[in-house]
TrEMBL record:
It catalyses: K(+)(in) = K(+)(out). This is Potassium channel subfamily K member 13-like. Coiled coil: none annotated. GO terms for biological process: stabilization of membrane potential. The keyword Transmembrane helix applies. The gene is LOC107703554. InterPro entries: 2pore_dom_K_chnl, 2pore_dom_K_chnl_THIK, K_chnl_dom. It comes from the Eukaryota. Keywords: Cell membrane, Ion channel, Ion transport, Membrane, Metal-binding, Potassium, Potassium channel, Potassium transport, Transmembrane, Transmembrane helix, Transport, Voltage-gated channel. One of its GO terms (molecular function) is metal ion binding.
């Protein structure tokens, strides 16, 4: 007797289960974050409101000013503030350099918010400009990630070969079919560690520059680096906004370079962390499925192999999903129809130096990294199935 659920494509069931679990975990993560930030920031907000009401009452009483008139003036200043008018002098917002800084924050999706278009024509142009610019920049980040992964793969392979030579396993023996290099899988945790160290070094160096030029304390500079590099872009702290700096041109160039390198490294790090999250989701789903002794469709049991949980319900299932921290091998990737992030394939194939051809015919939808790759793989699978 066939089960309706199990008769569906197995990868579809697994993807739906993974999607639902991830959505539930993200919702739980948001709820926990809301509780923490509310507990940390809400008392400070109440104190600020209390201080402002007290200052406003004292000012109107001492200067015999009508409170309603003062509130109208403050409202007008808020509107002027949005157009770039400040009490202290800042650099022009819409000269060429200011406009260039603005479009850079648009296409990078940072969007600090300290400069925004106020005209109808500017807002309409922003919609089309951002649509193309953001898409092109995301493609640039993905291509950058591919090159970073390629470089790291060669470095990690070189280190592994050197380790084999020291242990006496190099030379011709290391090139045999049963060679340990062929079965070696670069660890995703090492990639995450290297990218994390690189991002930290860039953030620390940039923070030293911002502390000196912007007169921020070092922690505030680190806070700005994370907000900017992760493209969160709150806009409460923004660099290069004063009217004049010492060595102004050099500082603005350094600021742009630090933000560019930081965004690329953090984007790459997020992609690697997403793979670890996906492995964790697979492990959780495997634990949840352990209660089923047999598959209703095939009648073949689940089995545990070390730390890896596999299912033999279907020949197209991924036999290589592991939570061991290692990337799946080329053989595992090529012999299974698996929708994994292409970052795994990129790292493993580059480390081996001779990527093998997939049995799935190519149709122009392959390649890429991260979310870009997942979209391409899904298009490829759909077109092949048709």
């Amino acid at each position: 007797k066939k089960c309706r659920i199990c008769c569906l494509p197995l990868h579809l069931n697994e993807d739906n289960a993974r999607f639902g679990l991830l959505a539930a975990l993200i919702l739980l993560y948001l709820l926990c974050g809301a509780v923490v930030f509310s507990a940390l920031e809400h008392p400070s907000e109440l104190q600020a409101h209390s201080r402002w009401d007290e200052q406003l009452a004292n000012f109107t009483e001492q200067n015999s000013i009508n409170l309603k008139s003062l509130e109208v003036l403050l409202k007008q200043y808020e509107e002027a503030f949005a157009t770039g008018i400040r009490v202290d002098k800042l650099r022009p917002r819409w000269d060429f350099s200011g406009a260039f800084y603005f479009v850079a924050t648009v296409v990078s999706t940072i969007g600090f918010g300290m400069t925004t278009p106020v005209t109808i024509a500017g807002k309409i142009f922003l919609i089309f400009y951002g649509l193309i610019g953001c898409a092109a920049t995301i493609l640039f980040f993905n291509l950058f990630l591919e090159r970073i992964i390629t470089m790291l793969a060669y470095i990690m392979r070189w280190c592994h070969e050197r380790q084999l030579r020291r242990s006496g396993m190099g030379g011709e023996e290391a090139r045999s079919e049963d060679d340990s290099l062929e079965g070696w899988k670069p660890s995703v945790y090492y990639v995450m560690l290297i990218l994390g160290i690189a991002a930290l070094l860039i953030a620390c160096s940039a923070s030293a520059l911002y502390s000196a030029m912007e007169e921020w304390d070092y922690f505030e500079s680190l806070y700005f680096c994370f907000v900017a590099f992760s493209t969160i872009g709150f806009g409460d702290v923004v660099s290069s906004q004063r009217e004049f700096y010492k060595a102004q041109e050099a500082y603005r160039l350094g600021n742009c370079l630090f933000i560019l390198m930081g965004v690329c490294c953090i984007y790459s790090l997020f992609n690697v962390i997403s793979i670890i999250i996906k492995q964790t989701l697979n492990w959780i789903l495997g634990k949840l499925d352990c209660s089923r002794a047999q598959c209703p469709c095939r009648g073949r049991p689940y089995r545990r192999r070390g730390q890896a949980l596999e299912t033999v319900c279907d020949s197209e299932t991924d036999a290589g999903r592991r939570l061991s921290g290692e990337m799946i091998s080329v053989n595992d990737f090529m012999t299974n129809k698996v929708s994994l992030a292409i970052l795994q394939k990129q790292l493993s194939e580059t480390a081996h130096g001779n990527p093998r051809q997939s049995h799935v015919r190519q149709n122009g939808f392959s390649g890429g990294v991260g979310a870009f790759a997942i979209m391409n793989n899904r298009l490829q699978e759909t077109s092949v199935e048709r």
